[in-house]
Amino acid sequence: MLVLSACNTTNLKLEKNAKKTPQVSASANHDTMENMSHGKYVNENTILPTQKNMNEKATPVKIKRIGKHEVNVTMTSTVTDVQVAPDVLYKAWTFNGEAPGPVVIVNKGDTINFTLENHDPTVNHSMDFHAVHTSPTKNFADVKPNDKGTFTYKASNVGVFMYHCGTAPVMMHIANGMVGTIIVKDNANPYPNKVDKEYVVVNNEWFDSGNAEDMKNGNPSHYTMNVRELANGKVGDTPFVAKVGDKVRLYFENVGMSQPVSFHVVGTVFDDVYLDGNPYNHLKGMQSVMIPASGGAVVEFTVVEEGTYSVLSHQFDQAMKGSIAKLIVTKDGKLPAQPDAAKH
């Protein structure tokens, strides 16, 4: 069982035994995992007393460009209820009230002035951006409860990268939801193909009761696959939909802490793949792409007929636990109208 000591901000330890709850398949497609208010908590036995009544609403990440190559990014660390499967809740540690956290988009060469506001009343938190070169002891340092810290570093590499809380024990903070994706773009040298639709897809793992042994053995009880639209450089909440003939680009990141993902889209072939989103890591004609924990890829493909295209881990034990989303392809790129009864 995962035991969090409320006595101080750093005394967090793991115990081996945990009360298991039945596995429930996660829902097939989550746009966001935020502010849910129904269902049971799979980690109820490990919720800290000071966090039990917390359920902070999701808030947008604050990104403000203050120069051609300089940007301020402000995020919060907090506690939020997230839904990891139908009627299954997790009292999660989150960035900005979302798990995974909000997508951060910057440009190659940007200096990032990052501020973390820690709203957690009990636990230290921090930020580890995989997209930067910096001293971890200096710029991935802990921020104490009800405090904030600002750190500066440069994003020099193009790609799609993981971010996560780097506070020890890191395994606990990642497993409890403190993960997300940062995309570094090169506007001067974009990917060569013109595409019609872009989405960010994030795969994550969850563990019943915060089970330490399952964490150590890499045995998640649930997966979630979150999808957000990327249009004109901004992240949106439109449905996961495309039009017949569209070329689609997915920015995929595997933020789960233990398992690789065999990333696949049923009904098509990846025309172009850029491992970690780096243009130099270019592959063509791939049926699936193996993505390690913390790894990512940019994939491009064409949809030629109407239908529902499953976007999933082809390791079907993962797909059956929730590592799946549904891309709807229609003639006009719009979702078909639903009967009134189906809307409720």
Automatic annotation (TrEMBL):
InterPro entries documented for this protein: Cu-oxidase-like_N, Cu-oxidase_C, Cu-oxidase_fam, Cupredoxin, NO2-reductase_Cu
Domain Plastocyanin-like: from-to ranges: 80-188, 214-330
EC number of the protein: 1.7.2.1
Positions bound to Cu cation 1: H125, H130, H164, C165, M178, H314
One Pfam family per UniProt: Cu-oxidase_3
Catalytic activity: nitric oxide + Fe(III)-[cytochrome c] + H2O = Fe(II)-[cytochrome c] + nitrite + 2 H(+)
GO molecular function, one term: nitrite reductase (NO-forming) activity
Keywords: Copper, Metal-binding, Oxidoreductase, Repeat
Requisite cofactors: Cu(2+); Cu(+)
Binding site for Cu cation 2: H173
Assigned protein family: Belongs to the multicopper oxidase family.
The protein's assembly and partners: Homotrimer.
Protein's UniProt name: Copper-containing nitrite reductase
Protein's organism: Bacillus salipaludis
